[in-house]
Every structure is written in C-alpha cells, then in structure tokens.
Amino acid sequence: MTRDDRRGRITLERVTQRFALPREGREFTAVQDVSFDVGGGEFVSIVGPSGCGKSTLLSLVAGLAPVTEGRISLDGQPVEGVNPRLGFVFQRDAIFPWKTVAQNVGLPLLFRGVDADSARPRVAEWIARIGLTGFEGYHPHQLSGGMRKRVALAMTMVYDPEIVLMDEPFGALDVQTRNLMENDLLEIWAQLRRTVVFVTHDLEEAIALSDRIVVMSASPGRVKAVYPITLPRPRSVTEIRFHPDFGRLYETIWKDLKDEVRIGYERTRKGLVG
Amino acid sequence: MATSGPEKVSWVRIRLWRAVLLGAFLLLWEMATRRGWVDPFFVSQPTVLAAQIFDWIRTGFILRHLFVTMQETILGFLLGTLLGVAVGFTFARWQTLAHIFDPLMVALNAMPRVVLAPLFILWFGLGLLSKVVMVVSLVFFVVFFSTYTGIREVDRDLVNNARILGAHPRHMIRHVLLPSALTWIFASLRTSVGFALIGAVVGEYLGSHEGMGYVISYAESMFNATGVLAGLLVLMAAVIAIDVALKRLDARFSYWKPFPK
Q1: Which of A51, A80, A188, B56 has the fewest CB atoms within 10 Å, i.e. is most exposed?
Q2: B258 domain-assigned
Q3: Cα–Cα–Cα angle for A173, A139, A129, nearest 5°?
Q4: Helix or strand (DSSP H, E) at B227
Q5: CA A142, A143, A144, A145: dihedral to nearest 10 degrees?
Q6: CB under 8 Å to B204, separation ≥6 — which residues?
Q7: The CATH number of A1-85+163-170+186-274 is which of 2.40.10.10, 3.40.50.300, 3.20.20.140, 1.20.272.10?
Q8: So what's the pLDDT on residue B260?
Q9: In angstroms, rounded to a whole number, what is the distance separating the alpha carbons of residues A125 and B39?
Q10: A83, A103, A111, A149: which to substitute to probe chain B, counting the most B Cβ within 10 Å?
Q11: pLDDT band at A5; cut points 50, 70, 90
Q12: What is the DSSP string of A199-211?
C-alpha cells in the first residue's frame, strides 16, 4: 500500500486564518496561504518560530475553529467541525482533574457510547501500554507531569483515531522524560501507523521523529520549506542524533529556520504579535 | 500545610495560648463586674451567662427556637442554592440572556436585604415563609455569581479536549461543566451558609414570635443584656458547628484537588 491510499490523509489548500482584534480595530493574520499534504500514516512535524500559527493550524485541522479562507480536507472530505476519527494531544495536559486515570482513559469510549464491558479491556490495555498499571485509581494531581502526559496520550489512542494531532505535547517535560516519551510515541506509531501531525519548536525533536518537516515562516505563518527526513527507521530518538545525516539535516533546516526565529523574536519584542 | 517559614508551628502551644487568653478574658470580665468596675446590667457576667444558657438547654427553651431558625436557614439555603445554580447555569450557557438580565441582577444584588426584610414580612407574614424568602434573597446571589463564573471560566483546553474526544452537549455538562463549576460553588458555600443564618436571624429579629432572632429581640426589649449575649453565644456555637461540618463536606467533594483544606 502506498501512503496515498491509506486512510488519514490531510490536505491543506491555501489556508488563511485571520482573527479580529477588536480592541485595536484591526485584523491579525495568523496563517496565510498554507498548502501541504500529509499522507496516510505519515509522521509530519511543523516547526517554526513562536507565534507563527503552528497551533492555529492544528486547531483548524481538528475542526475546533472554522477556516477563514481556503480548504482543509481529511481523505477528501472537507473539515466541518470536530471529526470523531481524529485525536488531539494538547500542549497543556488537558486531562480531567476530577477523574481517575482509568476514568480519563475510558472517557472517549463513554462519549462514543461503548458499553462498560467492552470498554474495560481496552482501557486496561492502554493503561498497561503507557506503563501506568497500578495507578488506575489515582487522580491527575497525584501523578508526575510525564505520567499525566501518558494519560493524555492513552486517552487519545484508546479510540484508535486515524489522525493524531500533537501540539508541542512534550514541551513541558524534562529532557529525560521527554526522550522516553518520544521513543514510546515512535513505537506506538510504528505499530499502528496512524497519521501524526506534530507541532514543535524543537528542531532536533522534529528531525528525530518525522518523515517530513514543514518549516513555517514568522507571523503571518506561511510554508517556507518542506524537508523529507530520510533517516532510517526504526529510530531511537537518543541514538538517531549520532547518525551522520542528522547533523547535515539539522544544519540545512536550521539555516531556513533561524532567520524566521529572529524575525519572530524581534516582533514579539516590539509587541507586534497579537 | 502550616509549616511555611523557618519557625515550626507548635499546635500544642497555640492551643494553650488560646485557652489562656480566653480564660484571662473571662476572668477579667467576671472580676470587673463583681468588683463593680462595670455594671453587669450592661455587660452581664460570664457565670450568669453560663447559668442562663444551661437553664435554656435544660428546659428545652433554646432548642425549640434554635430548631426554628435552623429550619428557615436550611430551607432557604437549599432553595437559594438550587435557584442560584439553575439560573447561573442557564445564563452561562445563553449569553444573550445573561446580557439582558445583567443590569437587573446587579441592581437586585445591590439592594440591602436588611431593609427589605420588613417588606418580606408584610408580604409573606410573620411565619416561616418570610424568613425563607429573606434567606433565599441572600443565598441566591452568592451561588448564582459563583456558578456563573465557574462555568464561564472552565478551562478552554478541557472543553476543546472533550469536544475532540466526542462529547455530546449532555456529556459536556455532566463531565466537564458541572464538575468544574462545583469547585466554585463549594468555594462560595461557606459564605452562603453564613449569609443564610444571618438572613433567618435578621428576619426573626424584625418580626416573628419564635426563633433565635426573636429570643434576642425579646431580651433586648426587656433591657436584658444576659439574654441578648446568651442568644448570640448560642448562635455563634451553631455557626461554628455548621462551618466545621461544611469543611468536612468540602474535603469530601474536592478529593481530586491537590490540597483539600
């Protein structure tokens, strides 16, 4: 099967998103004329300076907000509202503090009307998979940041979405935990082969994980370049960094990214980004 | 929890100090009135107060009145809370409604309820109903505002996550909005219970033939300082008992929070 006839394809065609800034009486263009495709089962990262609209782009794909101009489609179907075949791992851990680990992981199944008896083994399987067996009855405040992130991941994967969107999911974790979770993610991805769109500002993370990297320009976000990452798989994020091609890729992409980061930084400093 | 700062707090010592201070205060009071420094007609006397309260309890007099006050408080509190949650929830979900009624709510809340009490008594009589209405008028606004804020301030990420995970509107209410609002409602609960008791007592004070407010008001009309102070002490004890019970309840409902107080 080639990646184009797998399910979970995403197409963005000249997507532009503008927000009204009523207090300043003007519009703010978050992303402009963004077009790219993601193949079914492909792992694509979006990198760019802060404020370039990476997160906005993800929420548009998720159907959380309507697109101002252009078109986004999933397997040829235009996005109209939230799609049940899609999963989203948020930057902050958006798990429910009043629910236990097991209740959190089981929540999407409950929402989908899966009866408790068939939900139970699926929940148990995912809790085991993220290494939290024995913590089923814990509440989020009793867990570490990494454990909460695992719960969020299990919560997303338990209903087997065809597309998984991740918005800087590991940004708040310490480096060791982060590397462990990146490896776990790669393992899960290799087994299930779901489409992943991964937003990050960490270029190393993007290279280590992805099949392709989309580099965005400073605000308003445009696609500056797209790089295929040809490093061999299966990868370990800690070891792939020593691959001879890694440094070369990093250098090439960083050359593109660095100007944008500087522009983005200057603008943020002057308060031009809304 | 109370171990911040370099000095380690010794609770035994704190309790000891409290007891010593209270004892000294009572002793001074008793001495001042016995030696004739202050006329007990105005300030009563600790031993006389204790005897009065003991007598009230022995004859069952105070329990009857306390029961009436509690009945009004609890009834008004439950009704006010129910109404506050319902209206707060409705307004939070339908913003247009909230905008239409916003000036009215603010204006109503600004009205001093104590001054309204005589009107309530005029409308609803000297009995239970006027006190319950009085309590509701106080409790409703506290609960209404906290429910409204609680639902408006729900973490946007949680709402978005629930949407992505496939929540229907009824799921959203049951699993996201209500639990989130519950923390706010509970935070206001202790305030609103205090208000409820004040409402009931003020209502009784202004027009009633039973309840703690009546007991105090009657003693006042007889220039009986002992009766007034004894009534206040009984009320104080009731409020403290309720507050302790609520603290326990709050801890039970906020088991998922990092530091249940």
Answers
A1: A80
A2: no
A3: 60
A4: helix B225-253
A5: -110
A6: B68, B69, B72, B131, B210, B211, B212, B213, B214, B217
A7: 3.40.50.300
A8: 40
A9: 79
A10: A111
A11: low
A12: EES-HHHHHHH-S
What average pLDDT does range A254-271 have in this prediction? Answer: 83
Looking at the fold, whether B127 and B17 belong to one and the same domain comes out as no
Using CB atoms, which residue from A87, A98, A141 is nearest to B164? A87
Of A25 and B13, which is predicted with more confidence? B13
Q: Write the DSSP symbol of residue A14.
A: E
- Same domain for B116 and B133: yes
Question: CB-hemisphere CA count at 13 Å for B89?
Answer: 17
Contact A140 B164 (CB under 8 A): no
pTM: predicted TM-score of the whole model, two decimal places: 0.79
| Selection from B160, B153, B232, B83 nearest residue A55 by Cα | B160
**Nearest residue on chain A to B167, alpha-carbon basis:** A111
Decide: B229 and B44 in contact? Cβ < 8 Å: yes
Tell me the residue type at A68.
T
